[in-house]
Amino acid sequence: MRLSDIIKKKEGKSVQEKNLESEIEQSPQISQPEEKLQEQKQEQKSGISPGKVYGDAINLMRDLLKNIEKNKVDFSNIAIIVKDINDLIAGGNKDVVAFCERATPDFYLCAHSVNVCILSTLVGYELKKSDIDKLSLCALLNDLGMIKFTDLVQKSGKLTSHEFLEIKKHPVYTVQLLENISGIESSLKSFIQKIVVQVHERRDGKGYPSGLMGENIDEFARIISIVDVYEALIHPRDWRDRHIPHEAIKMLIEFAVTDFDVSIIKAFIGTISLYPAGSYVRLNSGEIGKVIGSNPGLPTRPKVRIIIDPEGNRAKEQKIVDLSVDSMICVIEAIDETKIKISDKKLALELKAQRWWVKGT
User: Fold this and answer.
1) What does the alpha-carbon distance between residue 121 and residue 128 come to, in Å, rounded to a whole number?
2) For 331-353, how does the pLDDT look when each residue is reduced to its tens digit (9 = 90+)?
């Protein structure tokens, strides 16, 4: 069964992994190891550290969100960050993508904006789009308007219908805030404004603020909308827990019945795979490991670094298992590493702590 068939199913039905695997394009998957040693090797090759780029981007967003309502913000700093992200991905250094598993504990919007930028840029390259720097800018800035609704977005309970109506005004407020960015060409600013106001439109016309449908929504906005939802799903909010990446991918496919561009969802899944780097899986060997990379055309057979042995203890030797090579070992389930029941309290804390971006990590 192909993805197009899955999407035709009625909403609410589960998406089976075997159906997903048959659909993924036979294009190269991206290896995204997160270990510091690998990052150091990449830094030696490219002259730039993915961790530094990510940290600089987070700091930029903190400053931007702090000042955008009351002061003019210089575009040059934004352009530098976007260029660094593009240079890393265009140069084949995808390690920065692994950082998208992180969230910022002080205010979710900082990491959310950066993560959406990185993943949207990645999809742009997968689709071989031109003007990817513009896509990256739109993705980074698309939720600026949320700063007006900080109290609502950090509310511990679900929003009331009235509160949700207020939140739905944020794309228009984003357009207004973009006027506070100085040093940007008027044509580029207008382009960004056109895109960001469309990110929450949906294929069936039930999005907001204008109820646009299908092809009337700009392709860049359609790309960002998918990434925006995925990124939100894999991170916690004050009123709900996170979804593990594998679950979030399946949810995206179900949402595509009404909401999204199917071809872009295919490209997105083909880019990050079914078990994205940084996620955790349980193997039929009883071991638990962290996905450190994927294999071309084999979305359910990633490369896995073993973290926990079959007895539930920290693995003495963190061996790497390539499931494309060892056909006897397979993934039996994707898991939330923060909820693994293990006796090693230090390891349990380490697994929980790595979900957050703290300065210097």
Assistant:
1) 10
2) 999 999 999 988 899 999 999 88
Single out the residue of 266, 261, 253, 274 nearest to residue 11, CA to CA: 253
Report CA 158 to chain centroid distance, whole Å.
Answer: 23
Rounded-to-5 percentages of helix, strand, coil across the chain:
50, 10, 40
Q: In this structure, are residues 262 and 5 in contact, taking their beta carbons and an 8 Å threshold?
A: no
Residue at 34: amino acid letter: E
pTM of the model: 0.85
- What gap in Å lies between CA 161 and CA 175, rounded to an integer? 24
Q: Chain-wide mean pLDDT for the chain?
A: 85
Read off the pLDDT of residues 220-245 as tens digits, 9 standing for 90 and up: 999 999 999 999 999 988 778 899 99
d(CA 207, CA 163): 16
> CA-to-CA distance for 66 and 147, rounded, in angstroms?
9
**Burial class for 96, CB neighbours closer than 10 Å (0-12, 13-18, 19+):** buried
DSSP state for residue 58 in the 8-state scheme: H
- For the record, the structure tokens of 329 come out as 């070992």
Report domain extents, the chain: 31-241, 280-353
Phi, psi of 324 (to 5 degrees): -80, -15
The token duo for 351 is 């697994």
User: How far is residue 32 from each of residues 21, 94, 109, 272, 337, measured CA to CA in Å?
Assistant: 20, 6, 23, 9, 18
Domain 31-241: give its CATH code: 1.10.3210.10
Contacts of 255 (CB under 8 A, 6+ apart): 229
DSSP strands (E only) in 93-236: 181-182
- Hey, what are 229's tokens? 């939802």
Count of alpha carbons within 13 Å of 258, Cβ hemisphere only? 10
Report pLDDT digits (tens) over 42-74: 454 556 799 999 999 999 999 999 999 988 899
| Neighbour tally for 216: CB within 10 Å | 12
Give how far Cα 328 sits from Cα of 169, 285, 301, Å.
52, 9, 11
Taking the C-alpha atoms of residue 117 and residue 112, their distance in angstroms, rounded to an integer, is: 9
